[in-house]
Amino acid sequence: MSQSELSHSELEFTSPFEAVTRNPLTLIGLRMRWFSGKIRAKPNWWKKVYDYEIVTRWRKEIIEHDAAMVERFWGGDEYWKTGHGEKQWPRDKITNVQLNYLFDELRYDASRYDDETGIFATAIHKVHESRSLIPADVKISLVQGVSSLEDVPDEEKDWHPGSKKQVLDLVHPSMYCLCIGRSHVYRRDRGQGAPTVQLALEDYLSHRLDFQRFFYNSKKPFCISHDYQWLPTDFEVSESGEVEPLAPHDWYDHVTVPEPDYDDYPANRHAYHNAYAEWEWKYRWPSIPEPELFVPPTTTSADEENKIKISLHGRTLQVIVKLANIVLTPDNPKYAGGSWHVEGMANENIVATGLYYYACENITESRLDFRTAVGSHYRGIWLEYQQSDDQGYTAAFGLQCDRPLNQYLGYVVAEEDKCVAFPNVYQHHVDEFELADPTKPGYRKILCFFIVNPFFRILSTSDVPPQQEHWALDEVSKEAEKDRRKLMKERSRFVAVHDKAVFEVDFDMCEH
């Protein structure tokens, strides 16, 4: 049976909560990716890589910048020192072979640029972006719809806890989330119109077959919450790709609630689309080979037959939505940046993220950084090494004994009108930025779509009746605020445990 014929239950997305074999990238490879990313950030790079004069100038600039970086980390006596993890750059200068590889790969990816959508591959594997995906009329509709959430009295503005009134939550899944054992849930197996029930933890866990992979060495895996789950919205995707939200409309058939006064469904719907003497140990550094010539990947008919093809057309897709603004003022002019994280916990089973930066005003460059855990062998948290080969791993991969087994992959610049999509296997965080003109206010506004594993349905807004303040009693809003604080505390603890278990495992070069 070919892979394309596998049943959904036999298909598993890579989980960010498990350490898997992921070989580190060489510093030479990371350097080429870094320069490649700088070029891909330029307007019309997919055309300019074919211009001989422009490429010649870029090669010269790369050589100059690289020489400065090599001198910074490895100049003089530093050439023989391993440092303390800060030397994330090759010891030797970039070569023509490496430059040729870099630009051959750029031209290959430029040939795959999609003129219709503007989608192209970034220098970070599996991360894609577009600067023209969202039509102007859809953007206008979105901005108009969001304005009703922004234009509220100051006392009603939902500033994210701990953000020093810089992050304004317009729609956040931590508010009015599923409270396991307390939220009322519609039981589909009891038929339409049946009363809601409070789903017990045991019932919740018994229905989550996707959790089974996490129970092999723990009765209570760190990645599973027993208290909370973000609620996705169910979207029906037609065979032609048209998208319609299913919730909360399903509830209108059997629950009497007032109609919410928001009309921004159309905009959201379209926006969705790395025992010698002491002296010898000190000076024995590895020789790093040149990369092979870049060769575009070839695909055979057998490869195509065995390729797993997942179409989102003709299915119900579950999506968790977030709308947030980072707001800076002359009195509060600098955003300190966010923490490294993946999206959600196992409860949400998020496999991919789509971002739309629809408005940026008077801010310095804002970056979305990515990093990956690396390792092989047992559970992907160990690397084979020669005794005390600290210098070898430093020179080749930038990894050191007693330092975390992860590698920084690069960044995507957050710019107005840009869309970014990436799998939920990397950690990411927003880098610091500030006001460009410190005398004027500024902001960065974003629409986020978190895509739930399409092969496992989780409880959604189709199953849980509305819990917002204006749909029920004022006490519900107070309870939601309390639950959000508890959820955030739980997930802050989770991030620390997750880092220690997967993304910040120390490279332990113990004696063999």
Q: Low-confidence spans: pLDDT under 50, at least 5 residues?
A: 1-10, 249-262, 272-283
| Strand-residue proportion | 15-25%
Total domains: 1
- Give the terminus-to-terminus CA distance: 43 Å
Number of strands: 18
Shape field: globular
Describe the structure.
- By secondary structure, this protein is of the alpha+beta class.
- The protein has one domain (3-273, 311-503).
- 27% of the residues lie in helices and 18% in strands.
- It has twelve helices and 18 strands.
- Strands 1, 2, 3, 8, 9, 10, 12, 15 and 18 form a nine-stranded antiparallel beta sheet that branches.
- Helix 5 crosses helix 8 (265-271).
- The longest helix has 30 residues, at 474-503.
- Pfam families: DUF4246 (PF14033), DUF4246_N (PF21666).
- InterPro entries: DUF4246, DUF4246_C, DUF4246_N.
- Residues 13-61, 99-244, 264-474 form the DUF4246 domain.
In short:
By secondary structure, the chain is of the alpha+beta class. The chain has helices spanning 27-40, 45-48, 52-74, 96-111, 136-150, 201-207, 249-252, 265-271, 278-283, 301-306, 390-397, 474-503, and strands at residues 120-121, 128-130, 167-171, 178-179, 184-185, 197-198, 228-229, 233-237, 243-245, 315-328, 334-335, 350-361, 366-373, 406-414, 418-423, 427-430, 433-434, 442-452.
